[in-house]
Amino acid sequence: MITVGGVDEARNGFDPTKLLTDWDRGTVSQLPDGRTLRTFEITAEDKEIEIAPGIMFLAWTYNGRVPGPSLRATEGERLRIVFKNYGSHPHSMHFHGIHAARMDGVPGAGLVAPGEEFVYEFDARPFGCHLYHCHALPLKRHIHKGMYGAFVIDPDPTRHPEYEAVARSRLLGTAENAEWQELVMVMNAFDTNFDGKNEVYAVNTVAHAYAKKPIKILRDKPVRVYLINVIEFDPINSFHLHANFFEYFNQGTTLTPTLKTVDLITQCQAERGILEFHFTEHEPGLYMFHPHQSEFTELGWVGMFDVVETVS
Amino acid sequence: MNQAGRPPSNAATTLPVGRPGRASLFWIAIPFTVLGLAMAWLIGTDPLSSFRNGAPPVEKLTFERTILGSDGVRLLVRAGGSQPMTIAQVQVDDAYWQFTQTPPGPIARGATAWVQLPFPWVVGEAHGVKILTNTGATFKREIPVAVATPTVDSMSFVSQAALGVFVGILPVAIGLMFYPVLRGVGRNGMDFLLALTVGLLAFLVIDAVAEALELAGEAAALFQGPVMVILTTMGSFLLLMAVGRSRGTPTGLALSTFIALGIGLHNLGEGLAIGASFASGAADLGIFLVLGFTLHNITEGIGIAAPILKVRPPLWTFAGLTLLAGGPAVAGLWIGSLAYAPQWSALALAVGAGAILQVIAEVGSLLVRRSGETHVSFFTPAAMTGLATGAGLMYVTAMLVKI
């Protein structure tokens, strides 16, 4: 069955439906050498959030939300992440990407004490669907308390002439990309009683959010899901789409699918990828998606795509 | 204003008498005033705020009744936290489930609420209910074997009554049937039988207190289970001693009646326990088990008969004694099968334990009186053998019913 009641989104400060398409693109400027410099401002803060109706969780957050802001950049850009720690514990930002050891966001390299600040700087590469998370110790607790987020690097079409059209469709802001319905989904879970087991499972934090309020999908537009697994305590998570099959790009670092025509993929902790599918030949209706670990499903991680002809 | 018994002989003596009245009123008012001021000061100025270290409130939830029916699972929970507790969600077998709480809202410390879950439980299988509060704390109730909780309808009442007759009334009646045979015993035989009664009662009192303490351990902390059990046992013992001795030391039929009452109260507790374990599916009602209880309780009938061997009471008193000692088993089964909270069963067992202590004291003192001036009292071979036989018989036959 399903959790009883609703979550106060205003108090939480974030709405699961809006999180799906809420990209943080930072601010853009030109470097002297002509390259693009993209700057993100991130703060760490303690915040009590409602993860399921009536269940409050003392989270550690990036920018007051769980998951943290979905950062989006383009391959080859210079990235500058200004990180201020307003939390009660030391925190960091460890990016899954290519960067110098100094920028790794681990103890000794970018671990930020409360009240302090650090600027991570590196090039955006490789393109793909990545993530960032806090790498302070103890690691399990810093991650499962809510310190993680999506980090997506779009491919630069000029660097991939053989798949330029595909690359353009992945690049946020192009006309080709606008043809897609893009969603970011971070699969997470919460151990509310600190027994090393999760009590609440979800995608984008709030249990059953998309089951109670299905995600509207236009039938004639393809869907691209940036899927990231940040679950703790359970070794793997999965994604199963009902009544449909999809193409899968593991870690999003390729422009051709790594798995074709599948309706289920598994991801271990911190694994991620891109799913592409469409409902053009389906009749409108509610199409379920959930991990095929039934226990996760029944503990909150389940949602619905509401396939419609036009958005009302 | 005059105090009783003091003659108002003159004004000079009556006036000072009124003063102690007012004075004592004054002296009573002082501690209460200080208490009131202390409370007002605590609430008003909150001097304990420095003790608040950011720790969440202590939460405690006790499950008192679990009722499985055609409409799902109903649980009676009692809150025992430092602050009112809020049930946020309920899981059954690690799945969030629809639930309704009656009455709704936060549950005050010591208060109870029903949680109703429309869950399709499976007969004979295990289930687990987990309640999550608003802080994410969890409280779990295991249902080891799911069986429908008996409801108050005539069918189950009749079958439970039949069961009660087998485990309570029949064995006492059989034990009393030894009466004609036992009448012929000599002095040593009588000592043996009285000591046997003390031995079996000693077994029962230990068994009852142990079981009461175990049940009390399951009850909410605010009932202070072990203290409640011990105080109730002592209170019941002293009260029955006072009643029993109000017309002199009980002997003969009076003593037999007290033994029957003590055993009856114990059988009430035993019935509660059997009823509860069948209601919770913890025990399967096999013929072997029922026969075990029958055998186990026959010794009780012999114990009741011992004090009246030399008085030849009318026949109807045997029926009365049988009902008094065995009948409560039927009532216990009825009540126990409705899955009542553990503290009430513990309380019933504790009252029974006190009653048994009283008869141990009375039968023991009878044994001592019988020994007269020899002062050997308990320590004759006959009495020692009787004690060992009574306790041993009960212990060995109990092996048939302990699972």
UniProtKB/TrEMBL annotation, chain A:
Gene3D superfamilies: Cupredoxins - blue copper proteins. Pfam families: Cu-oxidase_2, Cu-oxidase_3. The keyword Repeat applies. Keywords: Copper, Metal-binding, Oxidoreductase, Repeat. It is an enzyme of class 1 (oxidoreductase). InterPro entries: Cu-oxidase-like_N, Cu-oxidase_C, Cu-oxidase_fam, Cupredoxin, NO2-reductase_Cu. Residues 58-156, 198-308 form the Plastocyanin-like domain. It catalyses: nitric oxide + Fe(III)-[cytochrome c] + H2O = Fe(II)-[cytochrome c] + nitrite + 2 H(+). Its EC number is 1.7.2.1. GO terms for molecular function: copper ion binding; nitrite reductase (NO-forming) activity. The keyword Oxidoreductase applies. Belongs to the multicopper oxidase family. Homotrimer. This is Copper-containing nitrite reductase. It comes from Xanthobacter autotrophicus (strain ATCC BAA-1158 / Py2).
